[in-house]
């Protein structure tokens, strides 16, 4: 197991060997858990947690790979150098004293509210990453097939497609529910009993859960919850919520359940079954210290209005069914069509973001506005590009043009619309009023094509080792750029530097082979892991 010897410098560590070593152990843990071999799972987990390979990878993931790696904990340390990384990996164990977390408040997307995020110190982050490596394969073998949030290889689009598949044959009643303060209220003892690990690891996880919180100058000790922001927190929350689908199936085997983190829905033809499911879930959640949030929990119907509700919103999409004649309702003539579109709140939030950029950029050059708007438009449309979004994209293109016209005319109140149009806009592919500065043009929402997403097959997990399947899925991921999708296909899902397959959680970067970022020929571009990209540049330097 001791692949990386102490004489290695950080930049010369053979990461591909370490990755292979750790993954082999994780796959063995996954298979042992699938087979119900609990003692073997614990033995393999202890082996992984003591492995120098795993410790080095854990340190790399929190100090180099992680996009939020330069956020400081209570000790003020934002980043560590290669020598400090090696020292941290060398001293990483399950006995160290856990330090308090630093709480910061982050605005919720499209809202004025803020949510708390806990930032552990670097050592605790690395420790959590290491433990996650050991626990995740065990629980991936146990988790329900219709749980999609914060799991490797699964995403929002899998959850939405699962709902679409469940609504093919009939209109259904829906329990559309949200758990109140899920991350803040999970009972620690119940969670630790459920994890059911060996004493030393239980104590370490307990210390994470009970770690003090510094919010400005205020220090508190939590009595419940898994702090949002910790590396292992999403996994721990998923473990706490595991079992909800079994409760639903115990009431009716024909009831459907989909969960993404703390948001979930239950579907069934019978209103009484839905009401019974709600009662059963309230009791079950109460046993782990949680409850449903009344203001965000309702019963509705996908086809017919019920108590003033029709259809429901989930993960930014609106899902409902529309009455149709049997000749217009698809091949089977069911009399209805299921349409999944961007929700009104999602559209409103996106327009507010565009408006905010234009309001703050009244005096900015056109190129700066385009550079700010393009990532926002691209990210939003790619997220919604898997469903029936064409009409929404056309409408948003129109609304954005109107806002841009107002923005440009405010800059030149004495000029005519014709003059403003010639100065700021061009015609592109038959579309007029495309913002253009001579080099850059603004993306139109309607440029984004609609591409159906294929849901993950059953209970598949990246720990099954089927790299061909996972590479093909990665290349089709909606929010991946065309450039990266193309390169994944060209490279057959393999990083040319370390020769390992790309994983679903990997951070990927495009490398220009000759060092010239203006030379964008395909034979000059490679897709690399972020840490591989760092190593290539340091070697070249």
From TrEMBL:
Q: What is this protein called?
A: RNA-directed DNA polymerase
The record's listing under InterPro entries reads: DNA/RNA_pol_sf (IPR043502), Group_II_RT_mat (IPR030931), GrpII_Intron_Splice-Mob/Def (IPR051083), HNH_nuc (IPR003615), Mat_intron_G2 (IPR013597), RT_dom (IPR000477), RVT_N (IPR025960), Znf_C2H2_type (IPR013087)
Task: Give an example GO molecular function.
Answer: RNA-directed DNA polymerase activity
Q: EC top class, in one word? A: transferase
Superkingdom: Bacteria
Pfam families named in the record:
GIIM, RVT_1, RVT_N
Q: NCBIfam families from the entry? A: group_II_RT_mat
Q: Which UniProt keywords apply?
A: Nucleotidyltransferase, RNA-directed DNA polymerase, Transferase
Tell me which species this is from.
Hyella patelloides LEGE 07179
